[in-house]
Write the structure tokens for this entry.
Amino acid sequence: MEDDGGYGLLDYMRSDEEPELGRTVVGFGAMALLLFLVLYEVLFPGHGLPVISDIVPLVTGVMDSGIWFFILGIMLGFFSLLANILFKAVQD
Amino acid sequence: MDTIIQMMLIFWGLLILFAWLLRNGMGFVGDALAGMTGFMLGKALGPGATLLEGRSGSASSSWIHHGLIWLFVGASITFVDLWLGHSPNDLYSLQSWSWNISGDSAFVPSVFATFAGGIHMILIGAALHIIPRMANHSLASEGNAGLMALVTSLGVFTAIIGTQFGNDIGNLIAFGGNTLVAFAALAIIANVLLTVREQEGRIEIPQWFFLFGMIGYFAAQIGFIVSGPGNASTTLWMMLFLQNGIYFGGAAFGLVYYAVPASTGQPLPSRSLIGLTLIGTILTVSPSGYDPAMLGFAEIALGPLEHGVTEGLSLAACGTETSCTGTLVLSVLMALAVPVAFMFAGNVLAAIRRSGALFEDTALTMIAFGALMTPIFAVASLFTTLDSISGSGELATAISSVRLGSQWGAYIPLVLGGVLAILPDITGRELDSQSEGRRATYFLAVGAIGAFVFSLAADFANISFAEAMIIADSEIEGAVSSTASELMPIASVLFYGAVIGVLFITQNVIRSGSTGAPAGTFEAEFDILGPQNYVLAGPTTVRDLLTAGVTLDTMISPEDSDNDGDHVGPTHLSEEE
């Protein structure tokens, strides 16, 4: 019988590069969201999503140019810089 | 006397006077001034002087970090400016917040953020490290210098906000912001001069570059003021040319000349070329960075200019009735700036190629890219600038593209690379990730050059279109070639690469403060810089050793005379041979 190292699992079944828990949760979340959207479209065809469908028309007139996607990226970059600086400041 | 010649004589005279005073001192007056300036930088500030801890290197680090963040902001606003160049009303929805940003309204803030904020702060940060280090003396007032970084950032922020009002009050606020930046710069100059005063040896060339840059910036302003309002339409542009060349150009040269040997451990190939670059930077007029649209910036930075100042310099054409001595002098001085760029690039590129660190080290790769592009854009700028100031105007459409390319494709990589090379010495930490740094360099390079190429192609399409309209005798106001209207969006999207590149570098630098390896950790692995061991076959000179690539860390040992007693031949270059 193969040695299971005392963990109740065979050696070849134990990975040594476990993904981070955060990534796993985000991955499952994305899949769940996709499944929910598909399910909603199947169950309520042609109906808008609750809440979100009410909000989107409010920003239609605002973000109707491609530049906003780039500005969104710049804002993300800026806030990531800010987060890095704050992290560094409170690290100690 | 011709206005241009008079302005140049004032500028050179002030620099010669400064150099003489720096070398010979001012006797007991100098002692009194030094004591008073030291008091003003320290105790006179009251509680303000104790705001910052004043740890050695903290001021330099603070200026560089502020500068990097402003550079990212500057890149972002430049991107918006480029986008609004082809779609002027894409941000119209902001008008619901009373924020009118359309057409070229992002241009002036982009100049403030990129140059008054980003580049100026990075260069001062480098100066605050390099000058005391070469003087072998600590900075006169570290706390004051750190405080001035906050004042400068506040000034730049105020100036940018002021430009968005679009009225006289806003312009006044922006002018106030710019004045704050100038006051902080004066405090830094005083601080640096007090430091250099304690230097015992001679002043080194990188120090001269910074010192002439800082003093030259104000010397050009003095020349502008002394020449009087009657000549403002010429001297304003002369002032901008001189400030660009002596401060932004010269200080960048000084930074790179210090950073490359400090990073590679090898001297630059030619000391004569370094000296010639210094003299050339002072004596010539750099054509790079010229754009008539800079009038908008000058009017805010210097206050309203109601003395016949027009958009762009317009010189007298040579003819039988008009004297064109000034035009000829300025053209020759601009043409002479091109060999200076070649001398600088040749020296730096040879040093980096010899180090073998190209494409390995982020800082050196970025410097190499900037150095390669510097002479190319110097030639391009000479064409567009001379075309514009001579009144020919055939390349007027392309002038903004060439300015964009020379700033983001040559100048900014030089400054960024230089500061990345000296940063481990300042903060005590290596860059967090070299691979991410290299990726950022590629983003910046492809983004800036791609944007320049497509923008230039659009400009030439517009030039052809304009010529076709003239031939067809049907001039339509504001008409743009359909090819140009397709190319311009591509140029602006490509420039987003430069924004991402600067963002990645800034993030990398900020992260290196907490997660970067201690400085010097990778030194042992950096054997690509030179041989570990070197065997001497006979008497040789230090120059030959340095030419052979020996570094300060190379172990030199004499060849075993018993085994090879009557060996006659050239000195072995290394053990591997």
In short: Residues 1 and 446 of chain B are 47 Å apart (CA to CA). The mean pLDDT of chain B is 85.
